[in-house]
Amino acid sequence: MPEATPPPTTGVPHETVAAVDLGSNSFHMIVARIADDHMQIVDRLKEPVRLGEGLTDDRRLLPEVAERALACLGRFGQRLREFPLGSVQAVGTNTLRQLRPATEFVERAEAVLGHPIDIIAGREEARLIYLGVAHGLAAGPERRLVVDIGGGSTELIVGQDFTAQLRESLHMGCVNMSLRHFADGKVSAKTMDKAQLAGAIELRPVRETFRHADWQTAVGSSGTIKAIAAVVQTEGWSEDGISAAALRRLREALIGAGRVSSLDLKGLPDERKPVFAGGVAVLCAVFQTLNIAHMQVSDYALREGLIYEMMGRHHHQDVRERTMRTLSRQYQVDEAHGRRVQATALGLYRQVGGPWCLGDARYPRILAWAARLHEIGLMVAHSQYHRHGAYLLRNADLAGFTRQEQTILAALVLGHRRKFPTQDFAALPPGIRDCTKRLCVILRIAALLHRGRAPNNRPRPILQVEGDNLSLVFPDGWLNQHPLNVLELEQESDFLKGAGVRLAFK
């Protein structure tokens, strides 16, 4: 069987695509037309759901907030009803990162939206924000600091051209800062000082790194920063963007008003008022901590970054592939052996992907990456290396990967050898449990057939499946020439019984 590479993702197979951002303050959706490798935004929808204010201490959503969010997604879903699978990229950020999976809110949200929703890590959110902002700015060689204040988190990025070089996600945003320091609606010098100090404490671990990152210009994105820019410019305090002096005047104006309900600032919409003081406190802390004198404002952010990410994958510029190559080098993985396991795994996948309902375009790529990195844990220790590898892949900052993709990847590496980890697989979200188990069975067989590590060993078995009953048929004489493989297949048959899978071979 010749060595194979992962099939390309479908990327942007459609002329019209959409991106949905389930933020902690607002839900956003953009619809864009792709033509000649350019994006033209044709529709925007936004609703101030304020998901973050409904997150309870035990990481559940208040019922009224959950219903408000689902109603919004139902309206978005109506707009997206005719969009084919793969043409919509929907992501959840800070609040959904914290939400307890057992609430099944994401599953309900997917049902009303009509498209999958991926939860992305904070640093991945930062990378996508930078990608969107960079495409919205005039091309230039300077290094940029990008700041995005969301409802539940603030992302800081330093990058050049379209590449993010430093990425951080901090647990402070306009919603949680407003709830923590301005919940009673009062704004005073004391409460504002306390909120800014809390922001400075959050920034402290990354302060020196970002101060000395040699950036030349600061750019802000998100609703909070755009609202602040609109106010300071409408009030005549800043001609372009946000200056440090204008931000100080805005701070004093908030304190002078005394209450959120009393705010009478030109350019500030009513829907933004409940979280405005918290957002101003965060931005004041960022300006002061990072010594920012002036900040430009970008209309592009996470949503646009998602569209450009889809376009990049369509043109085989998938950052996930670069991430995999970096991991392979960093952990000194035997790449030649991994490629051989990958070739066999993909050959088996092509035979059973249809009958096993593994049609998602992501699955063969994740299977291929798991095959290439199934021995990554050897860098930690040989004993239980599959568990070490799974831990690394589950918890590492993998650029380009959603949490769901990392969960599947880690599960495949965990389950590729020894006793099948049935309890770990039972703990996977219901929507990916069965398909991950079947991908893992494919990987187990491929890894087993290459256990001898012979560079010229290219088995060509035929894999037939009927439910959880598997039959491996080898070329005439192959099993007689590989008695060790026979013993290993017998052992594997016993392992798979524990997972409810029956393996026969001849």
TrEMBL record:
It holds the Pfam family Ppx-GppA. Keywords: Cell membrane, Hydrolase, Membrane. InterPro entries: ATPase_NBD, Exopolyphosphatase, GppA/Ppx_hydrolase, Ppx_GppA_C, Ppx_GppA_N, PyroPPase_GppA_Ppx. Residues 30-314 form the Ppx/GppA phosphatase N-terminal domain. One of its GO terms (molecular function) is exopolyphosphatase activity. It comes from the Bacteria. One of its GO terms (cellular component) is plasma membrane. The keyword Transcription does not apply. GO terms for biological process: polyphosphate catabolic process. Residues 319-493 form the Ppx/GppA phosphatase C-terminal domain. It is a peripheral membrane protein. It catalyses: [phosphate](n) + H2O = [phosphate](n-1) + phosphate + H(+). Its cofactor is Mg(2+). It is an enzyme of class 3 (hydrolase). Its EC number is 3.6.1.11. PANTHER family: EXOPOLYPHOSPHATASE. Belongs to the GppA/Ppx family. Homodimer. This is Exopolyphosphatase. It comes from Candidatus Thiodictyon syntrophicum.
